[in-house]
Amino acid sequence: MIIRPRRLRANQKIRDLVRETVLTKNDLIMPLFIDENLNAGDKKEIPSMPNQYRFSIDGVVEECKEIADLGIPAVILFGIPRYKDEIASSAYDKNGVIQKSIRKIKDELGDELLIIADTCLCEYTSHGHCGLIKDNKVLNDETLEILSKIALSYAESGVDVVAPSDMMDGRVGRIRSVLEENDYKDVAIMSYAAKYASSFYGPFRDAAESSPKSSIKDRKTYQMDYGNSREALREIELDINEGADMVLVKPALPYLDILKMAKENFNVPVGGYCVSGEYSMIEAAAQNGWLNREEAIMEALYCIKRAGADFIITYWAKEVANLL
Ligand SMILES: [Zn+2]
């Protein structure tokens, strides 16, 4: 007797019936860039990310309404401030670009949309690093002080979730205790627990103006080495023990093994960040007619989910919500 697995692939109905992984709108988080230098109503396309924009503070409120109407549950916000300095002071300014945006979005949309705020220094420092710098070194413990100030000011503005993306040691614990002390017990932490030093972030740096500009040219002393996987488990374990409610693996597609390990080893929700380079790679190939854009997008996101992601941060969130 021949075993015939093809019987279950004979038509779309039966394929749908036996499909193991399902992608829904509820899995999606849309990243948004807010540029304090833009006037109300202006938006600026990001050259290396076709169809992705930087919004003004007013513009992002309108964009969030559209996103909520599409049934997408959450956005993650990144800010481009008017003013940068050595210590990222505009990141924890009560009237900073993200703080203002959170208040405006919450005023308009209330609980219709979850607001996650990326919590880091790199978009706000003149040197472009995720930590403070002294004597050609990225300082760890001194940076925690700034990170917890940023997280607290986002909490004061009404954020639902803070997402520390800096990869300093001990930051989740520090942020958690500052939030508890100030009675923001309900603000969740989504930590970028396994964040790799990746060349796939290239277009994002275009979008967020966050390339390292100091004599320290890369982020390899704090982001992870792409040759390592067990180290990711250690990073995730530390963040969970320090109080992370959810963890992220970033990037996603070249790191599906890490997503799978994270899902199998821990009992907290795991997310995959499908980063700018993954987006631009497919967009560029599609522009050249080298692959079917919509099919490639769906396949990419399904594979991230299949590998273990409970949710996906993706620049295609709006488009995929329309297709689903
Ligand atoms: Zn950063």
UniProtKB/TrEMBL annotation:
Binding site for Zn(2+): 120, 122, 130
Organism domain of life: Archaea
EC annotation from Swiss-Prot or TrEMBL: 4.2.1.24
GO biological process, one term: protoporphyrinogen IX biosynthetic process
Short name of any one Pfam family annotated for the protein: ALAD
Subunit structure: Homooctamer.
One GO CC term, this protein: cytosol
Official protein name in the record: Delta-aminolevulinic acid dehydratase
InterPro entries, A to Z: ALAD, ALAD_AS, Aldolase_TIM
Molecular function terms from GO: porphobilinogen synthase activity; zinc ion binding
Active-site residues, as the UniProt record annotates them: 195 (schiff-base intermediate with substrate), 250 (schiff-base intermediate with substrate)
